[in-house]
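# nightly structure sweep
# worker-07 picked up a monomer target from the shared queue
# config: single-sequence mode, recycle default, output format = structure tokens
# input follows
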Amino acid sequence: MTSPFGPSAAHLQPVEAFGPRTRIVSLSSGKGGVGKSTLTANLAVALAKLGKDVCVIDADVYGFSIPKILGAREEPSVENDKIRPVQTLGVKVVSMGFFVPEEQAVIWRGPMLHKALQQFVADVAWGEPDYVLVDMPPGTGDVAISMSQFLPWSEVIVATTPQHAAERVAQRMAAMAAKVGLEVIGVIENMSYFVADDGKRYEIFGSGGGEDLAAKLDVPLLGKVPLDPALREGADKGRPVVEFEPDSPGARAITEIAAEIDGMEPVRKQKIIAESEQGSSAGKEAKIDSSGARGTSATKGIPLRVSLTPSRPEGRAGVPRGQGIPGLQITPKKKLD
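# output follows
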């Protein structure tokens, strides 16, 4: 069976980086500007405060912001040929932001992007976490396709705002998840309302978008997060409100959502594997592997090698920033046609 995204996407295979105890939850949106990265960072901290072992993969390679939001100022190092993720506030993190200066643009075509994402999943010493939260870029482009195929047992949460225009765009992200066989487990409505000093609630971006999207997808609305100045200020300063302003309206709402997620029955990796082996139409390998061969390289047909290994010797922490693309070795195996 061919991949729904054409022959090039069919070469991408699942990456066996996490055991069956680990829940992979992707935070996705149809468009930018809905506060998805801020939600991801604060949900990660909230889950960590519940006693969970939590990791975050910042898959927004072009628009990385997770390190800044989490206040992650350390630098990754290499240990036993694996990148050791930065740890902050009880959360392990990997992001392109640790390998390039904040002001530098990442200008990559698909093959290099796919390989970098694969290394974020497979070449990092994650251990056996309870949760891996994936901060996805907006839309349904290359990153969304690659991550859905590297981690085909992911659960998807769609972030939107109360605007019906935003809700309709977010619905396209859910449609893509269905097309690649991922399960949407819920919707988060961000920027739902603003409570003024007089206690009056203002629905600045309208109302009903989150409820309507959840109803159309037949999934729960996990929660509504208000417009909270503390949430924005915390993101700007690298001080997530869940940790530093736990009694703020935004922090309380996100903490409740984290508890809701943790109480849900997870989508099990074993179920997906069993469906695939039985030839179920919901099986992931049937959707991904057009050649019929199993165990092939995830980068078959990709003539580039992108190494995200930090450039300093093993045992010496720190990846220097500010010199070209530090920490990356981008070496073509052969010339592209």
